[in-house]
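Students often ask why we bother predicting the structure of a whole assembly rather than each chain alone. The short answer is interfaces. A chain on its own may look different once its partners are present, and contacts between molecules only exist in the joint model. In this exercise we take two input lines together and write out one structure for the complete complex. Read the inputs first and try to guess which parts will touch.
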Amino acid sequence: MRRFAAPSLSFGFVTVFLSVVAALPLAALVWSSTKGGASGFWATVSAPEAVAALELTLAVAAIAAVTNAVLGTVTAWVLVRDDFPGKSLVNAVVDLPFALPTVVAGLILLTFYGPRSPVGVHAAFTRTAVWLALLFVTLPFVVRTVQPVLIELDVEMEEAARSLGAGRLAVFRRIVLPNILPGILSGLTMAFARAVGEIGSIVLISGNLPFRTEVASVFIFNQIQSGNPHGAAALAVVLLAISFAVLLGVGGVRRFATRHERG
Amino acid sequence: MGKFALRGVALFYLAAILLAPLGLVVWHTFRYDAHDAWIALTDHNTLHAFQMTLIAVGISVPLNAVFGIAVALAIVRGRFPGKGLLNAFVDLPLALSPVVVGVALFLLYGRTGWLSGFHVLFSLPAIVLASIFVSLPFVAREVVPTLREVGDEQEQAAHTLGASPWQTFWRVTLPSIRWAVVYGVVLTTARCLGEYGAVAVVSGNIEGKTQTATLAVQDAYENLDHAGAYAISLALALIAVVVLVVMTAVRPREGH
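Now the answer. The structure tokens for the assembled complex follow.
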């Protein structure tokens, strides 16, 4: 039987478009990073300022992702199981970081948590500011991966456990958590990847101080600005490798989560 | 009690991170700087920056919509070697730093790059290429699950009844995925409007020439033109709110 023909038609377009738009630039990036040889590459990525930027980025991104894993799960829980006036508005607001330009996010955080803070929290130009910016931009990820799982989750299971004498905490730990854990993990991983690559929301609030608040993306950007594209390429390839690893990780979580369905 | 504690935690967190900072900026702009804001917004260079952003959006979004639908069809309906690889590659921009995207384009089209002859760098085409790259996955990611869910029985039926592939696509496939496409297009638009990192690398950020709206925000703030920075930010935030409203309106229709 002849299958629907559009796939073969679209396949050519997809291949050409993807090659020109994405694959070719990435190939040029990897190619450029190898121009100085293995030793040149290593010298660039192991330079103290690059290492400091990369360490800061990975550490703060991890902390922000975990923070949002916890608070995002709480938020998803409240949005599904709780009921209060204005809930649908709160639900819509969660998507704000996806809609708002990151530079604008950085500016409004700087206004609220900067020198003229109305709540007296002056975090600008510190590592806390980087953390705040990353919390903002990665906020929706865990909420939006956990929420649909919680909606689908059968409340009767929990009621049965309660009637058999399980405490509230036991019900959460033994029944709810195992079900939403894959959602939490895949949301956390995507949030982490997003945080590692973030620049727009950080650039104004962090002050970009080398060894203090300069993240990897800003470091790479500064390398380009100061006329060192091959230095930028080397660290960019490191970030590219991290992105690939994270995507593989997310794929692994998804396969693990659907292992029962596939039999 | 536990219920209220959790509600309190969630609402306090959203207020502290999202709503209070945004509210303060809105209040500040209207309370103190409304007049300055208007002057800043109608400035020639600001208008030009918005124009650049809108042109980039206008070119990138339709291209990515067509690409997204095509790649979703290839992933869901097609059978070919390397499909898993294609799937992972389409998702890559979601996990990749926009600065890395910018550097990749910079090295491809730069002075010593393979395609240096095109003179794309520091001009509108570079901004468009960067916008397309960073917003590549959004339509596909919305359409793929919907396409899986609706199955291909109706397409098979249309084919059996003598419809051509094009007719089948326009009359059967597209209507069943239209809300997913709309949602993906909204996300793509938001991403292109707000793009900063990749555009900052490849545009050259020349005021009145290759400066986009988000670059203008940063430029204004760093040149101590705070009224200008807030005014452009607020205009962008207003667009974001419109995007949010459309997202909320479209979301419940998903899966129908």
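Check your guess against this: DSSP finds twelve helices and no strands in chain B.
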